[in-house]
Amino acid sequence: MKPPPFRYHDPGSLDEAVALLATLENAKLLAGGQSLMPMLNMRFVQPDHVIDLNRITGLAHIRESAARIEIGAMTRQRDLEFSDLIRCRCPLMREALLQVGHRQTRNRGTIGGSLCHLDPAAELPMVAAALEADIQVASRRGTRTLPMADFPAFYMTPAIEPDEIVTGLGFTPWPEGHGAAFVEFARRPGDFAVVGVAALLDLDGAGCIRRAAIALGGVGQGPVRWSRGEDLLQGEAATDDTLRAAAESCRGVAAMGDAQASADYRRHLAGVLAGRALRAARDRARRVP
Amino acid sequence: MTAPAPGADARRITLTVNGRRHDVEVETRLTLADCLRHGLGLTGTHLGCEHGVCGACTVLVDGRSARSCLMLAVQANGAAITTVEGLAASDGTLHPLQQAFQAHHGLQCGFCTPGMLITLIEFLGDHPDPDAAAVREAIGGNLCRCTGYQGIVAATLDAARRMRAAP
Amino acid sequence: MSEGLIGRRLPRLEDPALLTGRGRFVDDIHIPGTLEAAFVRSPHPHARITRVDATAARRHPGVHAVYAYADLAPHLTANLIPADNRHLAFEANSRPPVLPVDEVCFVGEAVAIVVADSRYVAEDALALVEVDYDPVPGVSDCRAALAPGAPLAHLGAADNVVKTFQTAFGDCDAAFAGAPHVATISLKQHRGSAHSIEGRGVLARPDPVEDRLTVWSSTQGSHRVRNTLVELLRLDEDRVRVIVPDVGGAFGAKHIVYPEEVIVALAARLLGRPVKWIEDRREHFLAAVQERDQYWELEVAADRDGRLRGIRGRMIHDQGAYTLLGMNVPLNASLAMPGPYLLPAYQLDVTVVATNRVGVIPVRGAGYPEGVFAMERVMDSLARDLGLDRAEVRRRNLIPPERIPFDLPLKSRDGTVTRYDSGDFPLCQAKALAAADYAGFPARQETARAEGRYRGIGLANAVKITGRGPFETAIVRIGPSGKVTVHTGAMPMGQGTVTSFAQICADVLGLAPEDVTVVAGDTATVSLGIGGFGSRQTVNAGSSLLLAAREVRAKALAVGALVLEAAAEDLELRGGAVWIKGTDRQLPFAEIARALGGGVGYARPKDVSPGLEATGNFMPPDVTYGNACHVVEVEVDVGTGAVQILRYVVVNDSGKLINPMIVEGQIIGGVAHGIGNALFEWMGYDEGGQPLTTNFGEYLLPTAPVVPEIEIHHVVTPSTVNPLGVKGVGEAGVIPAAAAIIAAVENALEPFGVTLAEAPISPGRLVELMAAGRS
Ligand code: FES
Ligand code: FES
Fold first, then answer.
1. Which pLDDT score is estimated for C90?
2. Could you tell me which residues are beta bridge partners of residue C475?
3. What does C109-170 look like in DSSP terms, one character per residue?
4. Given the CA of residue B141, which atom of ligand 1 is nearest to it?
5. What DSSP character marks residue C258?
6. CA C63 – ligand 2 centroid, Å
């Protein structure tokens, strides 16, 4: 299990990187390497060129500006895990991160890499979906952003052009006092989830749900925003019954089965875990008039 | 064995491994693990899966643990690397964690051991007083087929005690 | 320092090197000029090979050779790996070829070797070797393979039955006639692969000057590898030396001799260069032998009080494409079933079936976990059907201590009657129940249920044959340096063999263990060797070592008495010398070694044989049986089906303990392996025979967070058939583990009407069973 031959490029700037990507045939971008490197070692991918993004400055940052949080694509998962800003303003992401792989993989793995690998059970795409993040993309033709909802094209494939690089994501954090929970079931801690649920709730002074978000992972081709469940929550009192109804609706999600878990089991888990996530999010939320 | 093949994409890199500087010419596709093992002869770092799951190949890159099967040697250019060979003091005195591994039977065949030690060195650095569950979680990405992990957990807790007592 | 090293928790001598990165595993050995190999492997479960063309691969820069069957055949005396186990001989077509002639029978079967400057280049060239395959139908599921008209696993075979045999005693017809209780039980058992963290590996170095071949192999049997190379490559024994370096775990998968070992050795000879092949994890998944599927259909007859009258039934065993070790696994499984229980009549008809999957041979436990699982499922079903407590049913059936030694009317593999030489099974169970507070469990279960949590407890007993002979040599040598060296054919692979052996030897010779060097796994130093499997090494080689060390001690005393002019009773061995007790007069071992080594002018007794050395070849008159009782408490998350093990108690009887720390390490490691077998490890294949789980992300080994703290208690009934009183322990932990865990899960899910008849069991399957039980 050794990587196949390729030409290695390590551009020092984004401009250089997009120029290389635009001109080189059969090139792969190397971010944290936690997904690409195993695939290279197993020779599941055999690129002619590998463009390493690790030397590019300016792609790794976590900052708040104009009431938005902006995260560079090359930001390591571990830097997000230890970020005060993320912990305070986006507890959902932090809770999810703690379930991403292991310390050794989070030290290298990047948020951009995780988004682009787009494993249907990966935590960070679920979080991005729940947060309605915008994904920023650059190419030699310029930059553009696309909503996370449009980011997955199909199974493990983002809707970006071959000459485009994901440079970061941005989102508006939920208001102070919102409740967030990321609950997943993995066979062993640190494994890819069988199914995961990201839940966000914002309660008004009366304990009614002002806004809700549910994202499911491990069921479909990519992260699934479950609006049917969100609609059942919107404007309702956050009682156990309300949450249960929304959680149960998750069993209706279209799921894929494979050797590891049947479609039925994944749907079942979506319902069970959504219930847990919603209750935790509700219990963590403050009523904010 | 690790000298670049003629015509292969290769680069000259500098690695500082366990405090010692090495200048080597590597094929760009060479993994850091193979560079350490076969290029520099530091065979303490082991390969158990080469797809990033077993943790046997864990080394510290600039102080942070990483799976060396998932890094290219070129990516470590300029980095400071710590491998299992660099844990004992220069006079040969074992690191308290190494001592504790022996005292608590934290190894059998020893194949997973380098990765365990490196992972736990980083962990103890920011968790000086962990409980058993935290230790188990910390090595959740390191497979051991021999020990059932129990001796490793006991050793880590004991090492933490020793290291707190004599920092 | 001197006496009393046996039974001490001494730190291991192996550890300092392994802890500092100075271990020497096969891939750590760097010989200048070594070439590296990779194998072309079949992507098809079953296919004809119509053409192999390596022209392009051979031209690839850095490639030194590509060898397929036609290239190697002229240099081999035969194209079949020799059968290692002659008992219950099996059909020739189920022995693996060194390289396939024109048919591949499983995915991963080696078709050709590529030897290149590096493994990187060798892998590059794999894609350039053109192999034309003509896929033919194959069989994957061993039950389907028995259906009339099923595709054949081997072209030209009459059917897919490798072997049928029966294990039986007593009169089953009588036992079932008029039995007050008869029940049927169907079980589906699957055990996964060995997955030592170090894969296999072999390095072969030809020496044209001396016309020798030195082979380093990560194997459980140095001499078996040597003998195979001698046979297939037509070499003299003294021209082939096999050395086993540090081995990063083995667990059965390194027990046999593989085609790769032969091919690499031959390639090295043909090229006149050292050649190394290091198995990668994917190859281990595809081509290292595994255990796998067994389907049991049982009928049990019992009295109303739960006492067994008889068990009869049928078992189908998936053998895969090849048989490398006779009927070892299915036979053991059938022999293991009676275990510690009084079973008046037993009849199991076993059908061993060829499939287009990699061959099956023992993984740690070797069929015993399956036989025990079957028996323990029977016990739990009796308890359920008869309204009895599960521990009580077992207690009523356990062989009472007063009937030990106990002869089970079962012929063992070597044709001898099965005799449990020692043990106290009820005591072990009672201790385990007490340690786990079995009596208090119903209250715990009730409290948990009141909170909506589902707890269960399970127990299992097992007896394991250990210490199979016929012998394992140990040589103790003290030369003019005065240093003590032990040579043995036993094979360390992580079990602390070096330390245990040093303790045994040092204990006799009045030394510290670190004064003893143990050299194992080198065919150059011991002429015979059998190897590491079946929990046999401490029993055999340890006993041989004890005898050899005693003989060396007697020689040292005899010389000491002569030279020091003292009576032997007044002498003692201490610190590498013979001392007159209570004086400062002593004679160092080095002097004695010189005297017995024929040194001129030295006094030596006439009746002492040359050399301060001795060879022990203890031949155990019989095998010895260890036993254990495991009690497990679990909680099942009924929402997800996740099982959490809350408490794990082991009471183990492995006879006398040389180093309890090492023994406990073996048990804990075995239990962890059993947790994998019960809850995680599944080697999947599709209906066509394509493996579904070929990496560590898909095949789940137990990790630290899912393995609990294991609590161990010892019962010590010394073995009566060896001078150390020891029993093997390498497999003890794994054998009852899956049975106990599955029983605990079943108990937790009693309110859902779930009964479990399979292992492993996944969370998804539990959810499915709960849903079925509810409706
Ligand atoms: S060898 Fe790198 S994680 Fe297994
Ligand atoms: S000690 Fe053998 S794999 Fe951990």
1. 47
2. C487, C615
3. -EEEEEEESSHHHHHHHHTTSEEEEEE-----STTGGGSTTPPPSSTT-S-SEEEEEEEEES
4. 3
5. P
6. 34
* Final residue before a domain boundary, out of B59, B86, B113: B86
Helix (H), strand (E), coil (C) string for C319-340? EECCCCECEHHHHHHHHHCCCC
Pick the CATH number of C420-461+624-775 from 3.40.640.10, 2.80.10.50, 3.30.365.10, 3.40.50.10860: 3.30.365.10
What's the CATH fold of domain C15-20+469-616?
Aldehyde Oxidoreductase; domain 4 (3.30.365)
Q: Which residue from A22, A179, B52, A252 is spatially nearest to C281, judged by alpha carbons?
A: B52
Axis crossing angle, helix C368-386 with helix C737-748, rounded to the nearest 10: 30
How many folded domains does chain B comprise?
A: 2
State how far the Cα of A57 lies from the Cα of C72, in Å rounded to an integer: 55
Closest CA to A17 of A237, A227, A210, A165: A165
**DSSP string for A173-229:** PPPTT-EEEEEEE-SSTTSPPSEEEEEEEEE-TTSBEEEEEEEEESSSSS-EE-HHH
At residue C504, does pLDDT exceed 60? yes
* CB proximity list for C162: less than 8 A, separation 6 or greater: C90, C91, C94, C319, C323, C352, C353, C354
Does residue C59 sit in helix, strand or coil? helix
What is the complex's ipTM, to 2 decimals?
0.98
* Confidence (pTM): 0.97
C102 pLDDT higher than 50: yes
Domain that holds residue B125: 96-165
The reply to whether ligand 1 has any atom less than 6 angstroms from the CB of B55 is: yes
CB-CB neighbors (< 8 A) of C662 in chain B: 105
Q: Which residue has the tokens 């490398």?
A: C324
- Over residues A11-16, the mean pLDDT reads 97
Average pLDDT per 10 consecutive residues for chain B, totaling 167 residues? 84 98 98 97 98 98 98 98 97 97 98 98 97 98 98 98 89
Contact B45, B59 (CB under 8 A): yes
**Complete DSSP assignment for A43-92:** TS---SEEEE-TT-TTS--EEEETTEEEEETT-BHHHHHT-HHHHHH-HH
- C-alpha A187/C-alpha C554 separation (Å) is 59
* pLDDT surpasses 50 at A155: yes
- Burial class of residue A43, CB neighbours in 10 A (0-12, 13-18, 19+): middle
What pLDDT shows up at residue C86? 58
**Cα-flanking dihedrals φ and ψ of residue B80, to 5°?**
-100, 125
Residue C294 Cα distances to C147, C186, C739, C764, angstroms: 16, 11, 15, 21
- Amino acid letter for position C681: E
Q: Which of C648, C703, C711 has the highest number of chain B CBs within 10 A, making it the mutation to test binding with B?
A: C703
The residues with which C65 forms a beta bridge, in sequence order, are C115
Can you state the angle between helices C368-386 and C390-397, rounded to 10 degrees? Answer: 110
**Per-residue model confidence (pLDDT) at position C469:** 85
Same domain, B108 and B132: yes
- A208 vs A274: CA distance, rounded Å: 18
B109 lines ligand 1 (CB under 6 A): no
Please give the Cα distance from B158 to B151 (Å, whole number): 10
Cα gap A31→C197, rounded to integer Å: 28
Contact A189, A196 (CB under 8 A): no
* CA–CA distances in Å: residue C459 to residues C114, C391, C441, C456, C741: 51, 7, 12, 10, 8
Interface test with chain A among C36, C124, C640, by most A beta carbons within 10 Å: C640
